[in-house]
């Protein structure tokens, strides 16, 4: 199965409550901007791990490449 930007947006939104997610991509490479209050006080690596956790095994099978910006609303 090939993931769409909408699929990835939904998966992240479901895994990170109260997040605002936008995803763009071409079916192989995706770019996501995730704004989530749970990122407050977390390092960049911790934030990315939270997103990877929300995506689960989909990062291994359905998503080829994902770059992301992980922000709190105060960082916008």
Account of the protein in words:
This protein is of the alpha+beta class. It has a single domain (5-75), classed as BolA-like (GMP Synthetase, Chain A, domain 3). Helix content is 36%, strand content 26%. The protein has helices at 5-15, 44-55, 58-61; strands at 20-25, 29-35, 65-71. It has a 3-stranded mixed sheet. The radius of gyration is 12 Å and the shape is globular. The N and C termini lie far apart (33 Å).
Spatial shape: globular
Order of helices and strands: HEEHHE
Binned strand content: 25-35%
Rg over CA atoms:
12 Å
SSE-based structural type: alpha+beta
Which topology does CATH recognise? GMP Synthetase, Chain A, domain 3
Let me know the CATH homologous superfamily: BolA-like
The number of helical runs is 3
The count of strands amounts to: 3
Strand order of the largest sheet: 1-2-3
Overall helicity: 25-40%
Euclidean distance between termini CA atoms: 33 Å
Low-pLDDT residue spans = none
What CATH architecture label applies? 2-Layer Sandwich
Short description:
The protein is of the alpha+beta class. It is built from three helices and three strands.
């Amino acid at each position: 199965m090939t993931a769409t930007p909408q699929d990835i947006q939904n998966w992240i939104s479901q895994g990170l409550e109260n997040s605002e997610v936008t995803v763009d991509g071409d079916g192989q490479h995706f770019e996501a901007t995730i704004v989530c209050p749970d990122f407050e006080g977390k390092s960049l690596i911790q934030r990315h791990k939270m997103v990877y956790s929300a995506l689960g095994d989909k990062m291994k099978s359905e998503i080829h490449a994902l770059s992301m910006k992980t922000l709190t609303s105060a960082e916008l």
